[in-house]
Amino acid sequence: MTTQAQVPSLTTLEYIPYLDDTGNLPEDLQKKIGVYAIFDREKKLQLVNYSRDIYISLKQHLVRQPQSCYWLKVETIERPNRSRLEVIRDVWINENGAIPVGNGSEEALWNQPIDAKPEMTDEERLSYEQSDELAQIKLLKTIARRVEARILEELKSRGVATEIRFNSKQKAKGLLDVK
Question: What is the Cα 128 distance to its own chain's centre?
Fold first, then answer.
């Protein structure tokens, strides 16, 4: 049984820059299992989560919430142990004194694929409603690509050098999700 005493305090962990000097995510977190805390520019806690590959999760969060991802704190473990990961996550959230927005009101924005459909213009919406399924898919892909271009431009302005690729099958549904 994992006890709170075995969990490192969030305040004792070092802040790690979300992006290094070259604009890349911390590559030493690739394929690492653990719990991570994401902080904004002012080091206000935004999200506490766990993952079987912290690096991929961080990339997804950066794409979904680029203006909220500036600092990290991480605790890795050697073998997957969901109950241990959940205990660490819960202790860190409790230690914060308030539920971070990414674990509360904005959870979907942090964890779900980006839905490009709300970006449809009135003209596109009308065209979508009057089209057959194939034309609808084509339109959704076009809208998804437009949103993708905006996201990539925003990431570029942040200095992100890490390669970002989106799942092309999801674009046919009007969704953007990192591969």
Answer: 29
Distances (CA, A) of 72 to 18, 55, 132, 173, 179: 6, 12, 46, 32, 22
C-alpha closest to that of 61 among 113, 127, 123: 113
Q: pLDDT per residue over 114-139, tens digit each?
A: 999 999 999 999 999 999 999 999 99
Find the Cα–Cα–Cα–Cα dihedral 73, 163, 148, 101, rounded to 10°. Answer: 0
The per-residue pLDDT for 179 is 85
In which band, very low, low, confident or very high, does the pLDDT at 44 lie, cut at 50, 70 and 90?
A: very high
What domains sit in the chain, N to C, each tagged with a CATH number? 4-101 (3.40.1440), 114-176 (no CATH)
The DSSP letter of residue 70 is: S
Q: What's the whole-model pTM score?
A: 0.91
